[in-house]
């Protein structure tokens, strides 16, 4: 186990180093070519800020994972050879899907593309990981369903989950550090679970993605726009990180992990718990837009971070609240899963989220009355 722990730290360190080298170079190119994030009523930043930080993620993840694997194989590591027997095909198809979303993300960040085109490539990325054998075939009691009777049901559900989660991270990327912070929480959790469960290649992937986020968070949260040191991840980053996260989440449902066994923790709960904030928020916003007669795919200012800002909180305070909420959802769901039925757990999650949003909306309405202007529409 110590060997794999070292591999995890090496992978994380290499991804951290590579992203830390790439982001300053991306900033230089962005300012020379004037590639900045546009302004509209949804944006809260001021000054010229590039949105190309996510370009560093995929190269850093692929390089760090493959470099550590290559070093191990060059030393004829039998442990690595054994681990790759099961994980090689999923790893290769994950790289293919990442490259696909990486390219479509760059195109969207530079020139903009229609959401229908993004959906098409997300479905294609989902098809790639399904082809690798990473797909949902057991719901472990969710909606009182266990093993799915037909493979095509699992394929369709997996495609839907991939598109949903990837877009959830894309949509919640609205204030500094939020999408990256929530992704880092999920990736850190998955890295630990896969390591304890002896799915070591998956743990390395999680560590690589986690390491790639750390330098970005520094520039995103603490970089000065006036000094040309601030950067956003853009669609390139949110689509890529979302893909890694959902790949690991689905992969978690495919393993009987020891000592984190199915008898102790429900795999679906462990897979979904770190993703509840972006998933619940996206579902709420989508349903609200439909109820209001709006295009559900067109952006607006109705996400949970917008509500906290409309309440008068600073972006830093809103970020802290949402990251804390993400950790609380994660820990409470995982620790309840051995003792409480999965359906009750998720109903409690939805109830808590619904009540919290109702309370926020009422607080915003009271603030609107005091200020005599519309904030949340």
Please summarize what this structure is.
The protein is an all-alpha fold and 377 residues long. It has helices at 2-33, 57-74, 78-110, 115-131, 151-171, 178-196, 200-222, 234-252, 267-272, 276-291, 304-310, 315-336, 342-371.
Overview of this structure, please?
The protein has helices spanning 2-33, 57-74, 78-110, 115-131, 151-171, 178-196, 200-222, 234-252, 267-272, 276-291, 304-310, 315-336, 342-371. It is mainly alpha-helical and 377 residues long. The protein starts with a helix and ends in a 6-residue tail after the last helix. α1 packs parallel to α7 and α6 runs antiparallel to α7 (200-222). The longest helix is centred in the N-terminal third of the chain and has 33 residues, at 78-110. It contains 13 helices and no strands. The protein is globular. Helices cover 70% and strands 0% of the residues.
């Amino acid at each position: 186990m110590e060997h794999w722990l070292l591999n995890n730290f090496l992978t994380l360190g290499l991804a951290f180093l590579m992203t830390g080298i790439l982001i300053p170079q991306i900033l230089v190119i962005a300012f020379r070519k004037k590639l900045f994030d546009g302004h509209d009523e949804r944006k809260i930043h001021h000054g010229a800020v590039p949105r190309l930080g996510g370009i560093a993620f995929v190269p850093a993840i692929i390089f760090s994972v493959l470099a550590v694997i290559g070093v191990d194989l060059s030393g004829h590591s039998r442990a690595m050879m054994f681990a790759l027997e099961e994980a090689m095909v999923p790893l290769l198809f994950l790289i293919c899907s990442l490259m696909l979303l990486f390219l479509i993300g760059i195109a969207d960040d530079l020139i903009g593309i229609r959401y229908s085109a993004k959906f098409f490539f997300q479905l294609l990325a989902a098809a790639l990981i399904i082809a690798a054998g990473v797909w949902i075939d057991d719901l472990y009691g969710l909606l009182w369903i266990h093993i799915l009777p037909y493979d095509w049901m699992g394929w369709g559900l997996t495609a839907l989950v991939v598109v949903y989660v990837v877009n959830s991270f894309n949509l919640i990327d609205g204030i500094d550090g939020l999408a990256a912070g929530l992704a880092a929480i999920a990736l850190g959790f998955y890295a630990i679970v896969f390591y304890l469960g002896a799915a070591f290649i998956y743990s390395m992937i999680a560590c690589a993605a986690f390491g790639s986020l750390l330098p970005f968070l520094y520039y995103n949260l603490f970089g000065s726009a006036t000094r040309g040191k601030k950067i956003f991840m853009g669609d390139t980053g949110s689509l890529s990180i979302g893909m890694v996260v959902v790949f690991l989440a689905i992969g978690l449902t495919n393993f009987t992990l020891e000592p984190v066994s199915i008898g102790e923790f429900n795999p679906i709960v462990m897979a979904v718990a770190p993703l509840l904030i972006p998933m619940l928020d996206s579902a709420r916003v989508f349903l609200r837009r439909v109820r209001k007669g709006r295009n559900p795919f067109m952006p607006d200012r109705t996400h949970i971070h917008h509500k906290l800002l409309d309440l008068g909180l600073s972006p830093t305070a809103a970020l802290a609240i949402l990251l804390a909420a993400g950790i609380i959802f994660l820990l409470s769901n995982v620790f309840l899963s051995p003792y409480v039925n999965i359906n009750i757990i998720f109903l409690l999650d939805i109830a808590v989220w619904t009540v919290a949003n109702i309370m926020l909306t009422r607080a915003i309405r009271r603030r609107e009355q005091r200020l005599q202007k519309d904030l949340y529409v």
